[in-house]
Amino acid sequence: MVFDYIERISNLLRAEERKAGAQHGLQTVQIEVLYYLFHCNRFSNTPAAVTEYMQLTKGTVSQTIRVIESKGLIEKQTDPLDKRVVHLLLTAEGKSVLASSMPPPVFKEALANLGDEIEPALQHLLLALQQATHSKGFGVCNSCKHCKPATGDTFFCGLTNEPLSIGDIELICREHSESS
User: Fold this and answer.
1) pLDDT band of 180, cuts 50, 70, 90
2) Which domains does the chain have, with CATH numbers?
């Protein structure tokens, strides 16, 4: 019965995403990619990471990126340290589209009526599904075993050997590993 509830919730959310996207001339997948890019860190805003997170083909992601870039919602930026890597950054217009549509307002209203116990249960379900499907975690940095406190309001990624700000550790990362 739990599957039936989640499946129905997913369908209702997709319908709301379609409506929100249509208001901006976007397909559901395009608004979902924008939403991902808004919530991912600088290690995870590449076309390869989008492909992995969305579990779509490279061709679908490439087409999606091309469309949202042509609409001025993202811009590509070459990595200063590795010229082969391209980062996808939301533009101000892309952020504005998301602010008005994601998560769908009706979802925010419905969630406001629930208690705090739902989030840990859903988090546990997500982790179990990721483990069962051998999917990468794409978790929030501050819950990763590689995230270490440095000095003051800064942190350090033990995997990339790079400093992290408070803002960085609140974003999702494709290299996330649950802390033990």
Assistant:
1) low
2) 2-117 (1.10.10.10)
